[in-house]
Write a structure and sequence with these properties.
The chain is built from 15 helices and 12 strands. The protein has helices at 30-36, 52-63, 74-84, 101-112, 126-131, 141-152, 169-179, 197-206, 220-227, 238-242, 246-261, 290-296, 302-313, 340-349, 353-369; strands spanning 8-10, 13-15, 19-21, 42-49, 90-96, 116-121, 157-163, 183-187, 189-190, 194-195, 210-214, 233-236.
Length: 379
Amino acid sequence: MNDCLFDLHIGYVRFRNPIALAPMAGIVDGAFANQYAGDAGLVVLGAFNLDEGSIEVASKLVARGRKEFISDEPMELIKKEIRAVNSGSVVAVNVRSTTLEPLIEAAKIVKEEGAILELNAHCKQPEMLEAGIGEALLRDLPRLSAWIKAIKETGVVLSVKVRANVINDIELARLIDKAGADIIHVDAMLEGFGADLDAIVNYRDATRLFLIGNNSVTDFATAKDMFSRGADMVSVARGAMENPELISQLVESVTSYQKSIGWYNAPKHVCSEGDFRALAFCCLPVKPCPVHEKFKKLGYTAEEFARTKMEFARGTMLEYGEDTCFGSLVWCCKITKPCWIRDGVLNTLDLSDAEYMKLKEQLAKYILDHARIPVNESR
C-alpha cells in the first residue's frame, strides 16, 4: 500500500490512511488493536483512568458489569499498551481524570512515545457525570478550555473526544479550536437514528482542525457519508468486533477510491448542503443560489469570491476550459456529477479525474486561506 497516497499529518504524526479504531473502555488495548485494526491509520486505546477519582468511578462501573481499564500504575500501563501496538498504526491514548496533573503527566509520556493524547469528554455514565469527567466536561467549557491549553503546553498532539448534540456543536468546536487542540473526534450520535451527518457538517464549517467522525460506520457507504460531510478520518468501534475484517475492508475501499477520485473526502455540493470546501465546485455567482449565503459567511463579496477562484486557477489546468459553462474548469463541479462538457475538456487536456479533483482540493484550501472571516469565526 502506498503510504504517501494520503497526505494526512499533524505535528509529529503521519497517518497512512483515514481509517481509525475508536476507543472502547476495558476492550481496546494493544492486543485488541493488533487483532482488529492492523491496517488502520490510527488506533485509539482506552479509555484509561489516571487518578484516584476516575479510578473510583471506573471501579463502580466494573461492579455493575461494565468493562474498564484499572491499574495502580496507570502511566506504566499506558506506556506498555502503546508499545504493544506492532502494526505500524499511529497510536492515541484516550484518558480520563478528575484532575489536571495526571493529564499533564500522561501527555509527556505519550509525546515521548510518539503517540497522541485524547482527552475524554465523551463518556456519559451517570457516575462519570457526577464526578465531573467524560461528557461533564462539555458542560464546563471554561475547565475544558483551560485543560486543553495546559495539556498543549507539553507539545503533545492532542485530540478531544466529544459527543455531538449535547451542547451547541458549533460553539464547542470553536472553543476546542481556539484552546489549541489538534483533533476533534466527534461521536455524531443521534439517539435512535444512527449517525447525525448534519453534526459532522457543523463541526467542519466551524473549524479547520483535523476531524474524526464516529458512529454507525459499518461499511464504506456509511464511511463515505461522513467523508463527504467533512470528516478527515472515520473511526470504528463495535463494528470491528461484529466484523473483524471491517477495518481492513474500509482501508482497501478508501485506498481504491482515493486512487480513482483523488480527493477521498470531497464535499457534497453547496446546493446539496455541502460544507465550505464545496465552494471549490460552485459556478460563477451570477444568479440566485445558496453559494451567495455560503461565501458571505467567510466575508467574501461575489466579486471577491470570483476573483479569488480565478487567481488560484491562473497558471493551473483549472484555467482552461473555454467551452465549459463559464469558460474555465475552476467553475466546474465534482467529478462524480456527470458532465460531458467538463469531461471533454479533461480528456483534451489529458487531465485525469484524480488530478482534477486534487486541484479542486487545493482550490478549496486557497478559498479558506484567503477568507476575510476565518472558519472558526464565520457567521
